[in-house]
Amino acid sequence: MDDFLKRLPNTGQTDIRLFAAAVSASNHGVVITDHTQPDEPIIYCNKAFESITGYTNKEIIGHNCRFLQDGDNEQEGRRRLREAIKNGEHCQVEIRNYKKNGRMIWNELMISPVKDRDGNVTNFIGIQNDITRRKEAEDALASEKQNLEERVLERTEDLQESEAYLASIIETIRESLVVLDEKMRVLSVNDHFCRFFKVAENDIRGRVLFEHNDGQWNLPELRNLLINVLPNNNPFEGFEIENEFPNIGRKLLVLNARQVTLKGKYQNRILLAIEDITEQREIEQRKEDFISIASHEMKTPLTSIKGNLQLLQRKAQQNNDTQYLSGFETASKSIARLEKLIYDLLDVSKIQSGKVELIFSKFNFQQLIIESVNGVQATTQTHKLVMKGSSDIEVTADFGRLEQVLLNLLNNAVKYSPTGKEVIVHTCILPEYVKVSITDTGVGIHERDHKRIFERFYRADQISEKFPGVGIGLYVSNEIIKEHRGTLWVESQEGKGAVFSFTIPINR
Ligand code: ADP
């Protein structure tokens, strides 16, 4: 037992001795100072104090508690302690103390004055608790919280930035945008919408789209499409409407609509995008009209030139005028090219206006292949056209139009394989269909162009300067094959030749 306890008188002091034993055994550090002596010397400390601080009883008796500060004096807790001691008051603080080995500990310290009968403070009892772990956990928590707050702040800023970014895109976009809820009420529209339809946002926001502006949007087909967007997640694209709009007149619009999905949020909203294609369509129409009129107008003088040329050619033959004959031959070839171009352009116009009419007849497919191959073979000395497979079957189709397709494909095969020698025409008879494949060993076609070469006036970039052409042969051919309810496609790699194939039904 501690010396201090031994020194306590025995008789009549049992209770005190019991309390003293309890203090000694406590897990909390207990220290007692003598307030009647100068500089508040320590007169007692228990075992727990020794193990918390690392100092032994002997080392600290008589010292002021400030040695635990180890020079770390600028602490608010310490100021409060001094104040309490000076005023003889109770006080509780959390301060940094230092163990004998120099390690910092957080000390939860409570000091209480002990007073004599006259109320004079004789001692201070200090109870201390090492709360370093708790403090560290608290600090870690605080710093984690701070981190989290910073991250939330950053994220919020990011979100605000992307929201502003998105808003600026939506506002600058040259397309009208409308957000609808599931009841087709307008939740918002962008600036372009207001400017284009000449309405104020307030006039439309909150209203059912179909009721807006005397029902200008109340078109049965559009209504049907829109109400089906959400229930079945049925987006639509490229829906054209032509309508008379109150403030802006007749317009041709193309509409796209889809469900808005933002990581599962806003699932019950529809984004409707409206593009005005009135002007674009008019320009396209004018272009089509020009091509159609120009090619028509060229046809008549060309027929006259051709007729007269043939007449002159015959005369030159009769007179055996070799000098003129070769000139006439070159002119005839040029006229044939011009004639083909004009007829192709006329075909394009016909296709555009849906006026291509096929003339079906029954014929032997082999005859078509032979005639087409011979026709192209006659124009080339560099390439050999080789027929393979079997094609001896009666088909019902448009002989003239299919010949046009074959001539296009064969001429292309020769044109785009300048160093090639052979073009293979393979025909096979399938159940209900005949298939023709034309294989060349020429420049080939990049994958990205496989679909586009069938578009009007499209020519692959890298070849357009090297080879003459206008990019309508495949477009016309494709339309002819489609009219026959067949398909035309290409398989090719750049630099490795191309295989163009088509199928058509044997019977109409
Ligand atoms: P044109 O030959 O007058 O350009 P086409 O419509 O017949 O028009 O062909 C469109 C484009 O397809 C061509 O410009 C060319 O890029 C590509 N093409 C067609 N046939 C071949 C082929 N056999 N080999 C490589 N490219 C081809």
Topology (elements, then pairings):
Blueprint: H1 3-6, H2 14-25, E1 29-34, E2 42-45, H3 47-53, H4 57-60, H5 76-87, E3 91-98, E4 104-115, E5 121-130, H6 132-172, E6 176-180, E7 186-189, H7 191-197, H8 201-204, H9 220-227, E8 236-245, E9 249-259, E10 270-276, H10 278-318, H11 322-352, E11 361-364, H12 365-377, E12 384-389, E13 394-397, H13 399-415, E14 422-430, E15 433-440, H14 461-464, H15 473-483, E16 487-492, E17 498-505
Parallel strand pairs: 12-14
Antiparallel strand pairs: 1-2, 1-5, 3-4, 4-5, 6-7, 6-10, 8-9, 9-10, 11-13, 14-15, 15-17, 16-17
Bound molecules: adenosine-5'-diphosphate (ADP).
What does this structure look like?
This protein has 4 domains: 2-137, 2-Layer Sandwich (Beta-Lactamase), CATH 3.30.450.20; 151-276, Beta-Lactamase (2-Layer Sandwich); 281-352; 361-505, Histidine kinase-like ATPase, C-terminal domain (Heat Shock Protein 90, 2-Layer Sandwich), CATH 3.30.565.10. The protein is built from 15 helices and 17 strands. It has helices at residues 3-6, 14-25, 47-53, 57-60, 76-87, 132-172, 191-197, 201-204, 220-227, 278-318, 322-352, 365-377, 399-415, 461-464, 473-483; strands at residues 29-34, 42-45, 91-98, 104-115, 121-130, 176-180, 186-189, 236-245, 249-259, 270-276, 361-364, 384-389, 394-397, 422-430, 433-440, 487-492, 498-505. The strands form 4 sheets. A 5-stranded antiparallel beta sheet has the order 2-1-5-4-3, sandwiched between helices. A 5-stranded antiparallel beta sheet has the order 7-6-10-9-8, sandwiched between helices. Strands 12-14-15-17-16 form a 5-stranded mixed beta sheet. Helix 11 packs across helix 15 (473-483) and helix 13 runs antiparallel to helix 15. 20% of the residues are buried. Bound molecules: adenosine-5'-diphosphate. The site of adenosine-5'-diphosphate (ADP) has 21 residues, from helix 13 and helix 15. This is histidine kinase. Its main location: membrane. It catalyses: ATP + protein L-histidine = ADP + protein N-phospho-L-histidine. It is found in: Membrane.
